[in-house]
Structure formats: C-alpha cells, structure tokens
Amino acid sequence: MRSPDAEVRRAAEERLAGLATPAGALGRLGDLALWWAACQGQVPPRPPADVRLAIFAGDHGVAAHGVSAYPAAITQAMVGTFEAGRAGVNALARAHDVSVRVVDVSVDSESTGPHKVRRGSGAIHLEDALSPGETERALAVGEQVAREELAAGADLLLSGDMGIGNTTPAAALVAAHLGLPASEVVGRGTGVDAAGLARKTEVVDAALRRAGDRVEDPVEALTALGSADLAAATAYVLTAARAGVPVLLDGLMAVACALTADRIEPGVAAWCAAGHRSTEPAQSIALDKLGLEPLLDLGLRLGEGSGAVAAVPLVRSAAALLSDVALLSELLPGG
C-alpha cells in the first residue's frame, strides 16, 4: 500500500518551522497539518472541502443476551431518525458541512435495499456472526460505498455506526486481533450496569473461546466475531486508504474496523486520524496499537460518527494554519 507522501511531509515540516509562530506553538494542530499535507500530497495543503460520513447500520444477535441498555428495535428507529436528519450526528454534520449517508447492511427489519446482506448478525458467543459468503458480500458493500463517495468528490471520509449491541463484537475483534482477554476490552457501551457489564464480558469471553485460532486471519475474525455492518465499515476504511484518501475515525466500531483493515493490508493506519477518544477501553487500546492519538477527548459515547464529525473543524483549522499563516522570513527586513 502506498504511504502518505514522505517528501511532502518534510516540506510541510519546513514550512511549519518557518511560520510566524513560536516554535511548537501550534501543538497538535501542527502535527495534524503535517499528516493532512502528506495525505493530500501538497504544501501548503487545501482544507478538506468535501467531507462525507457513511453510517453503517446493523443489528447484532448478542443484543438479545443482556449486553445493552436498549432494545434492538432502537436500531431501526435510529436509521429513520438519521434519514430524517434529526439525530445527534445530523446536527453536528449540518454545523460542520459534512454529508451524511446511512447504509442498512444488516438491520433486523423488513426493509430491503441494494446493500442489505442479512437481517441481523449472529450471536457471536453461540454461532458465527456471518457465513463466509455473507462476509464477502459485506466487504463488497463497504468497498462500493467508499468508491461511490470518492467518485462524488470526497476528500475526507468518516465512518459511523448504528446498531444496538455493536460494542460487543467490536470489543471481541479488538481482543482477538491483540490477543487480549475480554476483561481488558469490554466497556459499558450504551450504559449497562455492573450486572450487564459482567454478562457482556462473559459473552465476549465465550465468543473468543468459540472462535479459537480462526481469529489469526482478519477476515475469518470478521466472520466469527464481527457483523455485516462492521465488515462493511472495514472495507470502507480499507478502500479509502488504498485510494490515498484520508479517513477520520470515530469511536470503538470505526477503530476496531480500522485495526481489522490494517491487519488485512498493513499501512492503512497511516491514512487514518482519530477524531476522538470514546469511553470504551477497547478503543483506546486499539488506538495505541495503531499509533493514533485522538484529537478530542470529550467523554462522548454517542457513536453514529459524532466524534469524528466534531473533529472535522480541527482538520480544517490545521490546514488553514499551514496554508495561510505568514512565514517569519516574509516579516523580517530583507526577507
């Protein structure tokens, strides 16, 4: 996989060092500007002009086993709310000029569509989430969605999620990829109590035991422990990286998918930035593995892509600073 342009990054570092600002004064914004310029392949960089969020929606069999504070019916209701433009992420997207697309990959409903792989994914502690063929179809959905958004002009992609119970398979994927026990990765998701947290940990433990050494292959891990929506989101991130288009990650689901994509094809992480730190322990662990430091840490656990959308102004700010701030040499006599 092609990496962000190292020569452009060096040129960006020189420009950053020459700005009419004290050394290091731009902090993390300076680092973000270097990444953005290297991804874009030019100095000074253009700010992101066409930012697009895809929300991959699906239900999960584990939701019927006490791992979530909300019933599975919420998934379908929220898909309608996204489409009506009334969800939290819609409000943020309007504020920050981000396009929103909802993709029903595996919602447990009568609705059909070109991207529907199945109605809900399997309860991973009892059975595989998907058949191998369903995993292939879900990966194809994510690739297709990414290609469509890129063809429409996207220069920054965001990945969002909607699915009651989805933090359970996402945590299982992180545990499988990093060889960790459930106790280190499982969090409270939508806000389960202590008993719910214990049940969720048991589910992930059982799922990891059931999957065994199949998890050494990242696609097999998606089949055994993931879901159709997570598989689609994995291919979405992978396709963007292959095309040399940066991705701003959201919470646990997006990061688990980026980790999976990076295992499928090493080098994906270089095209990713972390929008925010969620409250889920598995997300922080996976970010550390990917070498990514979140831009925001607001205690968010909404999902939907909201943390990534909230970080978009920081990407635009970083690009503007590297592009529009005068060079110190221009201000000095004889400069």
UniProtKB/TrEMBL annotation:
It catalyses: 5,6-dimethylbenzimidazole + nicotinate beta-D-ribonucleotide = alpha-ribazole 5'-phosphate + nicotinate + H(+). Gene3D superfamilies: 1.10.1610.10, 3.40.50.10210. The active site is at residue 304. Its EC number is 2.4.2.21. One of its GO terms (biological process) is cobalamin biosynthetic process. SUPFAM superfamilies: Nicotinate mononucleotide:5,6-dimethylbenzimidazole phosphoribosyltransferase (CobT). Keywords: Cobalamin biosynthesis, Glycosyltransferase, Transferase. GO terms for molecular function: nicotinate-nucleotide-dimethylbenzimidazole phosphoribosyltransferase activity. InterPro entries: Nict_dMeBzImd_PRibTrfase (IPR003200), Nict_dMeBzImd_PRibTrfase_bact (IPR017846), Nict_dMeBzImd_PRibTrfase_N (IPR023195), Nict_dMeBzImd_PRibTrfase_sf (IPR036087). Pathway: Nucleoside biosynthesis; alpha-ribazole biosynthesis; alpha-ribazole from 5,6-dimethylbenzimidazole: step 1/2. Belongs to the CobT family. HAMAP family: CobT. PANTHER family: NICOTINATE-NUCLEOTIDE--DIMETHYLBENZIMIDAZOLE PHOSPHORIBOSYLTRANSFERASE. Catalyzes the synthesis of alpha-ribazole-5'-phosphate from nicotinate mononucleotide (NAMN) and 5,6-dimethylbenzimidazole (DMB). This is Nicotinate-nucleotide--dimethylbenzimidazole phosphoribosyltransferase. It comes from Nocardioides anomalus.
